[in-house]
Automatic annotation (TrEMBL):
Species whose genome carries this gene: Pseudomonas savastanoi pv. glycinea (Pseudomonas syringae pv. glycinea)
Protein's recorded name: Uncharacterized protein
Amino acid sequence: MIVSWILPMVDVVEGALTFSFTDDWQVIKYDETLWYTERMKRSLKGVDILAAKENRHWWIEIKDCVGYEPDNLPRLSESPPTSVTHTKAWLDAQVFAEQVKVLRKKPFIIDEVMQKFRDTLVSVVVAHREDDGELSSYTAPAISGQGLVIVLLLTWSPRDYGRLATRLKTKLDMALKPYGLIGFVVNEACRVPGLDVAVNRTA
């Protein structure tokens, strides 16, 4: 008799990436849930994946930039692009300057992650208050002391990835400090303590 030790998997697909969890995980593609798309999407942003196992939770935001590094490089810098700086300087000299605000089109990636984290936090609190069944397994971090880790999965060319990831993790941890949380910035290898997931590129 042949005994198979291969556990059934739960797959979550985001673009060209497939995230495979063993079936002892509770996993949901949050920004595709009915709760989010029908109730929250108009006013709140959301992280990509909510994952839970043994009273611990991981909220995962995915930025797949492989092949599009030049287009995405500005969002990895906290400083605004030169074009924004020049536009602000021009605006300051105009009589209507106090009525107009110049914003960068793509925010700093850590600011974006934090906005999605905060919006998701608000959303799951409301889901708990309204006893929404779809999110019932994922609301504990917002209402109890269950552990929560924020993960930014960033794919990038290997040559520059290590340097960028180290800097972004420092920024993410600083942003999460008021919430008493820590974050991780990882690539497809996804080396996050306790987060057992295989990430594969399917296209």
